[in-house]
Design brief:
This protein has one domain (8-244): Rossmann fold. 43% of the residues lie in helices and 15% in strands. The chain contains 8 helices and 7 strands; from the N terminus they run βαβαβαβαβαβαααβ. The protein has a 7-stranded parallel β-sheet with strand order 3-2-1-4-5-6-7, with helices on both faces. The structure holds nicotinamide-adenine-dinucleotide. Nicotinamide-adenine-dinucleotide binds next to α1 and β2.
Length: 249
């Protein structure tokens, strides 16, 4: 039920952190994987997918540019002839107080974290509607529920990701497409390096996590395989927290 043998996945932001781990998790479950990144080199992730005996297609694209998005999905379909799983993971964060938040920071975050998620869903959705099947997994955040501190654009974008997930689930559940989201808790990646370097904030965060540790990229492998597989065929429009219990506090 959890096998992804013969499936084709597209994972954005797959060079590092959570995206790389999820790409490997999908490959371990049997999927061939297209990996997208703008700057960080994809060589290591590609080699690790291939070492699992799966095909890997590296794609360099700046997803904050709407015009680059159709080409990404087209490249996957050209190479593999189909697209079964889309993981919208690429995302950035800009930490400055709201009163000082630069307009450029706001726009950069919204362009990547929110706009690219919708346009990738749209492009992939067209292929999946034609196929009559597909799985879309958007990466949300604790800040799809909470306000956060000094990250107004990020919070707005991640609330939006939860909204897109529900809106498209309503439209596409009847077309054989399951669209859900994963909301990671506080995970140890580049995205949280600044937080972890701040001893006070790091301690406050750890004190609130019932499991008593930061999450790791590997903690997302099981949930993403579940949402990409037949095991979740009757799930639509949910945002699943993978957070060591943070939201239970
Ligand atoms: P990360 O910085 O390691 O990874 C982000 C990835 O996105 C990188 O591979 C980068 O190359 C790619 N990327 C950045 N800008 C891009 C662009 N313009 N076009 C294409 N790719 C681009 O951080 P991460 O923690 O692995 O974050 C992955 C996702 O998880 C993000 O959406 C983030 O908001 C979300 N998230 C992270 C945490 C956490 O605690 N780390 C918590 C909740 C949600």
């Amino acid at each position: 039920m959890f096998s992804l043998q013969g499936k084709v996945a597209l994972v954005t932001g797959a060079a590092t952190g959570l995206g790389k781990a999820m790409a490997l998790g999908l490959a371990e479950a049997g999927a061939d994987v297209a990996l997208v990144s703008n700057r960080s080199p994809l060589d290591e992730a590609v080699a690790e997918v291939q070492a699992l005996g799966r095909k890997a297609l590296p794609i360099v694209a700046d997803l904050s540019q709407e015009s680059e998005i159709p080409g990404v999905v087209a490249a996957v379909v050209k190479e593999f002839g189909r697209l079964d799983i889309l993981v919208n993971n690429a995302g950035i964060i800009r930490r400055t107080p709201a009163a000082d938040h630069a307009a450029s920071d706001w726009h950069d975050v919204i362009d990547l974290n929110l706009n690219s998620v919708f346009f990738l869903c749209q492009q992939a959705g067209r292929v999946m509607i034609e196929q009559g099947s597909g799985k879309i997994i958007n990466i949300a955040s604790m800040l799809s529920y909470q306000g956060g501190i000094n990250v107004p654009g990020y919070t707005a974008s991640k609330h939006g990701v939860a909204g897109i997930t529900k809106a498209l689930a309503n439209e596409w559940a009847s077309k054989g497409i399951n669209i859900n989201a994963i909301a990671p808790g506080y995970m140890s990646t580049d995205n949280t390096a600044q937080l972890r370097a701040d001893q006070d904030r790091s301690r406050q965060i750890l004190e609130r996590i019932p499991q008593g540790r930061w999450g790791t990229p590997e903690d997302l492998k099981g949930p993403v395989v579940f949402l990409a597989s037949e095991a979740s065929d009757y799930m639509n429009g949910h945002v699943i927290c993978v957070d060591g219990g943070w939201m239970a506090r």
